[in-house]
Amino acid sequence: MVIRNRPMSSLPVLPAGHQGTAKASQGNCKCPSADAPKPATSIDARTLARIEKHPCYSEEAHHFYARMHVAVAPACNIQCNFCNRKYDCANESRPGVVSELLTPQEAAHKVLVVAERIPQMTVVGIAGPGDPLANPEHTFETFERIAAQAPDLKLCLSSNGLAVPEHIERIKALNVDHVTLTINMIDPDIGMEIYPWVHFERRRYRGREASELLHQRQMESLDLLRKADILVKVNSVLIPGINDKHLVEVNRTIREKGAFLHNIMPLISAPEHGTVFGLRGQRGPTQAELTAVQDACGEGSVKMMRHCRQCRADAVGLLGEDRSQEFSKEKVLASVPSLDASKRLQERESIELFREQIRKAERLVDSPDGIEDGIGEPILSGDQPGPLLLAVASKGGGLVNQHFGHAKEFQIYAVDAVGSRFVGHRKVDHYCQGGYGEEAAFSGIAEILSDCAAVIVSRIGASPRQKLEKLGLPVIESNNLIKVALREAF
Predict the structure, then answer these.
(1) Most buried residue, 18, 307, 318, 391, by CB count within 10 Å?
(2) 314: number of CA atoms within 13 Å, CB side?
(3) Phi then psi for 167, rounded to 5 degrees?
(4) Apex CA 449: angle with CA 281 and CA 272, to 5°?
């Protein structure tokens, strides 16, 4: 399908006074910038209202709304072979990593400071660095303080599920209506390869007994959360040779138990992290393996999350744009918060107006009437190619709006004659580095995008363009809606 370029004047315009939620990268390259969103998922109205401003539960919302994690829970009640909470690198995004631990009082203070400076922040979560319910008093005191001082923020909890049954009533009382459970197996024999031990009721369990206990408690947690009308996202770590084929069964089970979202994440196992899997040489999945498992699990009644960035336990900001280092404990505690509820409301209203403008534009692209409005006419041949993978440089929303040299990730879409489907994102080292390391960065980008049919960017320099095209990877420059740019490329 080929569609003529839609005039830029017909695209939605950013509301006056709205600065957007993504910043142009800084560097030697000069390039234009723009921001914009994607259509809502086809779910019932009540659920849509619960997730529409939640960046983790809504693929569209993550382009516009920020979240933060507060690190108040250092202890954990299980040991995972893929986890080592002692390691920290300020430049790394990985679950379980934090730079500083906070008390509940410090965490609540930090939330107010961040909410003032990032008015599009809508969600506060506790995800560690251990398990929040292995630190219940710190976790619940933190939530109580936040709810009292910033009631417009959604509260989220991430857990392995072992201790959810004991705390379900308190979770409900605090209106925590989004809970993430990490479930990597439903077969205790597979669990034995992932979990060395489980600590429960003052006893440490090992081997199959530990896996059986964890599995039973996780299934009970799913049932209790469903009955409490709490939306559940399930995280699963894909470990090649251990649970890669098994995750289809995990998906089927959580679907039957009413989970809303399934996030299948790649194992991170660099040996320098000091995890058991890393030191053993257990590899993570390739991008093709990850996508294959996600596709095998399908969408069904449980939606597949493909925009996860595997965040730190002290992450701040938009997904993919961690600003935690701007809000160190020293800086935050020296600040006096002055939270302006009207400013936050105004920011949300502006974002929602912008999102609706983009939705209307994208509906026009899909509408037959759009042909008369200058979008162009579809040209279908009898022999249509299969789905193509196309890589898009975008800072968010529904626009191609990022320079090739500034991209730290590419959004990948599978496109055919029927339409386009978001597959996931792929992280890269940005190319423009002031003349240092650009060759190495280019080699990495070329390898990561080697299975793509084309790269779509807002701008690109002559040198990287020539290099990509020499490798058989065409480059398309566009400042259009992603949906239109994808069809043109296809």
Answers:
(1) 391
(2) 26
(3) -115, 10
(4) 25
Q: Name the strand (E) or helix (H) holding 197.
A: strand 197-200
For residue 282, what is the DSSP state?
A: P
Token pair for 404: 């090739």
Buried b (16+ CB within 10 A) or exposed e, 456-481: bbbbbeeebbebbeeeebebbebbbb
Pick from 253, 244, 320: nearest CA to 285: 244
Q: Are 308 and 265 in contact (CB under 8 A)?
A: yes
Backbone angles phi, psi at 482, to 5 degrees: -55, -40
Alpha helices in 334-414 (DSSP H): 341-366
Phi and psi based region of residue 433 (left: phi greater than 0; alpha: psi -120 to 50; beta: remaining) = alpha
Indicate the Cα dihedral angle 304, 305, 310, 311, nearest 10°: -140
**Rg, C-alpha atoms of the chain:** 23
C-beta pairs of 343-352 under 8 Å, 24+ apart in sequence? 343/119, 344/115, 344/119, 344/152, 345/152, 346/119, 347/18, 347/119, 347/120, 348/53, 348/119, 348/120, 348/122, 350/15, 350/17, 350/18, 351/18, 351/21, 351/64, 351/65, 351/120
| Mean pLDDT split into 10-residue runs, the chain, 490 residues | 34 38 34 33 81 90 90 94 68 64 96 94 93 96 96 95 97 95 97 96 96 98 97 96 96 95 92 87 92 84 85 85 86 88 90 85 64 39 70 84 89 86 82 68 89 94 92 92 85
DSSP assignment of 390-401 equals EEE--SSTTB--
